[in-house]
Amino acid sequence: MHLKVKGPEKLFFEGSIYGFKAHALDGELVCLDQHVDYLSVLKKGSLTLLDDHLKETQTIELDGDYILMIENNQAVLFR
């Protein structure tokens, strides 16, 4: 999946990943490659990138609530 994490004035991350986990308004969320189209709000906190063995590879700190949109195996997080 291609992931882009955009803040109001800068790009925090862009690249290909297998999946990620984060905290949505209604609980923990895990999205993996080939996830169905999806829309949610992620809470301030950590976004953890996952490899194809579901091992944590990188953590990105979200400095506020973000909107998550997954469409056609591309995920975009933006404030």
Describe the structure.
This protein is mainly beta. The protein has one domain: F0F1 ATP synthase delta/epsilon subunit, N-terminal (ATP Synthase, domain 1). It is built from no helices and 9 strands. The chain has strands at 2-6, 11-16, 19-24, 27-32, 38-42, 45-50, 56-62, 66-71, 74-78. Strands 2-1-9-8-5 form a 5-stranded mixed sheet, with no helix packed on it. A 4-stranded antiparallel sheet has the order 4-3-6-7, with no helix packed on it.
Can you count the helices?
Answer: 0
Number of domains: 1
What CATH architecture do you see? Sandwich
Please report the first level of CATH classification, the CATH class.
Mainly Beta
Strand content: over 45%
Please estimate the helix content. Answer: under 10%
- CATH H-level name... which superfamily? F0F1 ATP synthase delta/epsilon subunit, N-terminal
Shape: globular
List the helices and strands and how they pair.
Blueprint lengths: L1 E5 L4 E6 L2 E6 L2 E6 L5 E5 L2 E6 L5 E7 L3 E6 L2 E5 L1
Parallel strand pairs: 1-9
Antiparallel strand pairs: 1-2, 3-4, 3-6, 5-8, 6-7, 8-9
Q: Summary?
A:
The protein has 79 residues and is mainly β. It has strands at residues 2-6, 11-16, 19-24, 27-32, 38-42, 45-50, 56-62, 66-71, 74-78.
